Sequence to fold (594 residues):
Amino acid sequence: MLRKEIYIIKTLLKSLKGNKVASITTIILSALEVVFEIVIPLCMSNLLDFGIYDSNMNKVWIYGCALIVLAFLELLAGILSAKFGAKASAGYAATLRKNMYNNVENFSFSNIDKFSAASIVTRLTTDVTNVQNAYQMIIRMAIRGPIMMIFAMIVSFSINNTIALIFLAAIPFLSIFLLLIIRAVNPIFKKVFATYDNLNNVVEENVKGIRVVKSYNQENHEISKFDKISQKIYQNFAKGEKLIAFNSPLMQFTMYAVMILISWIGAQAIVASGNNSALGLTTGNLTALISYAQQILTSLMMLSMVFAMISIASSSATRCAEILNEKPNITNSLNPIKDIKDGSVSFKNVTFSYSSTADKNVLTNINIDIPSGSSLGIIGATGSSKSSLVQLIPRLYDVTDGEVLVSGKTVKDYDITSLRTAVGIVLQKNELFSGTIKENIKWGNENATDDEIKEVCHVACADEFIDSLPDGYDTYIDQGGTNVSGGQKQRLCIARALLKKPKILIMDDSTSAVDTKTDAKIEEAFKGFLPNTTKIIIAQRISSIKNCDNIIVMDDGKIIAKGKHDELIKNCSIYKEINDSQNKKGGEQNGKNN
Fold:
């Protein structure tokens, strides 16, 4: 367990780069603040004993001025310590968040599948904030507390051993109770942050699907789901905070008990010695001891707050370290190939599953050759693993067995960036990002000219609606593309992929929301645009793939038939059934329209 915690700390400390100077400065200033705070009671003691008690105005002025200077220096050290502490912790959090995000960006699909999107968001926000708060307390309070306690104890023993022993008796009493509280709190906060993932997942799902929620009048159902998870977080957090809240009364009880004992024993000592330092305790000594008692107990309070924050942040630290330590399982080979000569694709005895522990393979024994510049159509029932097949080409996933070849070489030998640059893919779930239409399309080629952007939009039939917009290509797209229709979104995504001028173009059911007339226009435009590009088209409509050079029919992760349209009509009953069904529906629809 200790080894794991050390590993987590080492992982998180790697993000301290660039913030070390501010952190060290904070520690030094915190230590100086304590030194001034320790000296002030001694100065006050001398002011009382040698100045006021002896009616020596000269010493009153000397010690009085010294107190003013020390108080100012303590204030200055405290202000600067707070300033640099804030800078160090905020800078550390920014670096930590950046390192986590950069690592997430390098994840393969299988890495992302391991963490839900909601969990990643929680780790990058709430968890990083908890680690930031804990770090700020560590470089300030965790430094002030022990130094103050040690020096206050040393000075207290130098003044009076008997009274100083009262402090020693209080420390183990408080320490035991603090450890019990921390031990009880840790498991509770682990549950809290796991539940935060579920809460963010519900929010994300609900916001994305708000149109469906409202269409089915399920607002109350979604509110109920949110309330249940939110209530669970509240209950666990309240339970943890209640336990932590025992710190305050425990500290107050100990502090007042120590004060009473010091005052009682100290008063007796002063009466017995007559304020004679040679015989016993003086009034100044007692005042100093009371100040040191407050400092010792305050330092214990600081440490208890630090431990409480660490208890809250320990679960967050573990979750942040998990993101940082997650290694992308798709990486470049030692000497990756960067030049991809053509767009030929071959699958050789390919088997694939998303998990090594899966009971069943997603793809089984796939063998197919796609010549460069040719077109391949893929059709099959929902869940037949069509999308899984094409995602192996740009290495969004790696095969479990067998190999995928591009231009005669296994995809694992290619530089990942070069491979994905050569493959244009319009995924089944289209995504647009906040920004203008032009900015979204330029994802395909950031150096593209306006004429090139207009050309690909014409091929994708996107210019038909772009030209009708008031701002044209400068029209702002909301997050997720919520202000454009499904068909418009698909056409913009097709244009974005075409702008790459890829050697291989994958269309994963990317015209499903487009009417058949526009679909036919896009298909016709493809013939003259990028003629040497290999085109792989997944579709539910046979009309979208019937003119392809070759077509494969998939079922349950296997290729059950391959050939041209006419061949499959004769030889594949499933293909013929789909064709007849779609033609019948098309005929009925045409009859109704007429």
Summary: The two ends are 75 Å apart (CA to CA). The chain has two domains: 2-325, 345-568.
